[in-house]
Write a structure and sequence with these properties.
Order of helices and strands: HHHEEEE
Strand content: 25-35%
Mean pLDDT: 86
Largest sheet: 4 strands, antiparallel
Low-confidence stretches: 2-16, 45-51
């Protein structure tokens, strides 16, 4: 997901993120609670003092899911840490009027422990200024220093299918 805006805009300062706790359902849609699912990638195990010791997502799909959850909880540090250096913005600017409402993985290609690249096609539903919408994207991932990172993506028109 590339929802980014690299311009500083004080009027768009991030409001507090959605109330997601370690025991809340994970925003990514998997059955595990946030702390055991995407939260472990964001902040690491409960006994880890800093985020750099956090485990990394073992597949491109799990990285996609954890990045979606990072948008939900507004974890800019995680998003930047998991962005390929050549496409990483200087900062992530969250739109305070946007609320993520659900993730559907439509397709994956490669992206496992046996691959160096992979793609994940998804639909992320949201509400923006009271209007419902959906972001349909085919994201590209690759390994960087052994860990999966988001490279970029192509927006897909719903009429185009997968």
């Amino acid at each position: 997901m590339s929802r980014r805006n690299t311009r500083k805009n004080p009027a768009r300062a991030a409001r507090p993120a959605a109330a997601v706790t370690a025991t809340s359902p994970c925003p990514c849609g998997l059955a595990a609670p946030y702390g055991e699912c995407c939260g472990r990638f964001h902040s690491g195990p409960a006994n880890a003092p800093t985020a750099p010791t956090a485990p990394t997502a073992p597949t491109a799909e799990l990285l996609m899911r954890s990045r979606y959850s990072a948008f939900v909880v507004r974890d800019a540090a995680y998003l930047l840490r998991t962005w390929a250096p050549e496409t990483r913005p200087g900062e992530v600017d969250f739109d305070p009027s946007l609320r993520w409402a659900g993730l559907e993985i439509r397709d994956t290609t490669d992206g496992t422990a046996f691959h160096q690249t992979g793609t994940v096609t998804f639909v992320a539903r949201y509400t923006h200024a009271g209007e419902q919408g959906a972001l349909h994207e085919r994201s590209r991932f690759r390994r960087h220093e052994g860990a999966w990172v988001y490279v970029d993506g192509d927006f897909i028109d719903e009429a185009d299918g997968v």
